[in-house]
Design brief:
The protein has helices at about 5-15, 15-25, 30-45, 50-55, 80-105, 115-140, 140-165, 170-195, 215-230, 240-245, 245-270, 275-300, 305-325, 330-360, 375-390, 395-415, 415-425, 430-445, 460-480, 480-495; strands spanning about 60-65, 70-75. It is mainly alpha-helical. It is built from 20 helices and 2 strands.
């Protein structure tokens, strides 16, 4: 294994950024291939660590700040971080390949200039966004984590502001303000944890529950993450942001929200179990309310991207539910389901982008009969929906089953409310999920083909390869779930035992 591999992969996202920008100003869209190569190599690098983290954690530390507070710039690869960051960067790689034809068509519209400057900006910010989120997932201290978190916010905000559809200034500002509200609550938690423990190191949170005031620190962390994951009441930014961003940006935004938030909950919140246990049932109920509300909203949508936006909001709150069971299977299921959801939601946003690319519309009422015209799109749609719905052979089946089994264990151990949440999440919420999924499939791909779509041609090869790759990984993880669950189980074993 290469020494300092984690640091080198993070540098690979940030150091080439000026080169990407300057090169993009000269060669335009061709710079996308450089960004694709960087993400592809990063995916391979993280994939090579899977076997290693089943036996030990890999920690790299570098001197950063000595006074007035000692800080190290640290990166850690373990059974939690590697499966998540690998999958996340895989989605980024696919979104980059997908963007090559997509962004060219996006820039052909009147509201964004088709220029080398804009290609340079898009791919530079896209690269930096991916590197920032990877930095979050590998960080060993809270200040470093928050720095990368804020960088990810800035770069994603710029992508929405400069390249979104519709009223992108309003949408980007909503996203910016809401995410900063969450970030502010999270920062209060960071400062509170330092006040109690005298350290910013994540590992030093292990005994924070022994300190008076730990409840308020855990609550601040939780509320900050609820904004990021779009819990009911904190979701105002999500539908418009997701639906009005370019499809490659929507794909990585959706994957970021669920995977980074779940990663953070699974990394930071378990030490708070003794002080949050009493209210964790209410957090589970809040998650269930979000799942049902967003599911019903998805059921009535006619816009493909708003459907996927509400679908994402609904399903990612299963991860909240799983973490707050504070049961081993619940947390394991939450982590593995966030991986399957990140794959699926990225896939479905890209499908909606492919449909827009070929049909020129996001309105499902104007579609129909496209199954024969766009066979790759319907296969990818089914792969995404089966993963979200927890249907074999997709990876969502085992992860959601484990999560719900953990919720049931918590219900039997705790009381009526937690048991009610588990039963509703496994029955009514699942039926709503299947309802909006198969309703969408019927409206888009079956029925009579509109006359204006008689001459629709298959999607470009770059898009098709991306959809096939993401679909295939969902099925591979579903058939061989040990690829991702074995490292995570090592982390869970350490966490609970």
């Amino acid at each position: 294994m290469v020494n300092n591999i984690l640091f080198m992969v993070i540098l690979a996202a940030f150091l080439p950024a000026p080169i990407v920008y300057l090169l993009g100003r000269n060669v335009g869209k061709k710079v996308s291939w450089l960004v694709l190569a960087i993400f592809l190599l990063s995916t391979v690098a993280f994939g090579s660590l899977f076997s290693a983290v089943q036996h030990e954690s890999i920690i790299e530390e570098y001197s950063w700040v000595a006074e007035p507070v000692k800080l190290t710039l640290g990166f850690m690869a373990d059974g939690l971080s590697i499966p998540m960051v690998f999958t996340y960067i895989f989605v980024f790689t696919g979104a980059t390949l997908f963007s090559i034809p997509y962004i060219e068509k996006r820039f052909s519209l009147d509201d964004v200039e088709d220029s080398n400057e804009n290609y340079a900006r898009f791919y530079t910010f896209f690269l930096l966004y991916g590197g920032s989120v990877a930095g979050c997932m590998l960080s060993t201290n809270l200040i470093e984590f928050f720095m990368f978190f804020e960088l990810a916010l800035v770069f994603s905000w710029l992508l929405i502001l400069l390249f979104g559809y519709g009223d992108r200034k309003r949408n980007s500002m909503l996203y910016f303000l809401w995410t900063h509200i969450g970030g502010g609550a999270f920062l209060i938690g960071i400062l509170g944890s330092f006040w109690l423990t005298g350290s910013f190191e994540i590992s030093d949170l292990a005994h924070i529950a022994d300190h008076a005031g730990a409840f308020w620190v855990g609550l601040a962390f939780s509320l900050g993450l609820f904004v990021k994951i779009g819990a009911l009441g904190f979701h105002g930014w999500m539908p418009d942001t997701y639906s009005e961003s370019p499809a490659p940006v929507s794909a990585v935004l959706g994957a970021t929200s669920v995977m980074l938030s779940t990663y953070t909950m699974a990394r930071l919140l378990p030490p708070f179990q003794p002080v949050l246990q009493a209210i964790s049932g209410w957090f589970m109920l809040w998650a269930l309310a979000t799942i049902l509300y967003a599911g019903v909203m998805a059921l009535v949508q006619k816009d493909t991207k708003r459907l996927v936006a509400y679908l994402s909001m609904s399903q990612m709150n299963y991860c909240v539910l799983g973490v707050f069971t504070y049961v081993a299977n619940g947390v394991l299921g939450s982590i593995s389901y966030s991986i399957s959801h990140g794959l699926a939601i990225g896939l479905l946003f890209l499908v909606s982008g492919a449909l827009l690319y070929r049909t020129g519309t996001r309105d499902m009422d104007k579609m129909g009969g496209l199954a024969e015209k766009l066979p790759i799109a319907i296969l990818a749609t089914m792969a995404g929906f089966l993963t979200i719905g927890g249907v074999p052979p997709a990876v969502g089946f085992k992860s959601k089953f484990i999560l719900l089994s953990g919720a049931m264990v918590r219900g039997f151990e705790s009381g009526f409310m937690e048991l009610f949440v588990a039963i509703m999440a496994g029955s009514v919420a699942t039926l709503v999920t299947l309802g909006y999924e198969f309703r969408a499939v019927w409206r888009i791909y079956y029925g009579e083909l509109p006359e204006k779509f008689k001459d629709v041609t298959p999607i470009p090869k770059a898009m098709a390869i991306t959809l096939i790759a993401l679909s295939a990984l969902s099925v591979i993880f579903g058939i061989w779930p040990a690829l991702i669950t074995n490292p995570i189980e090592v982390y869970i074993e350490h966490l609970f035992h």
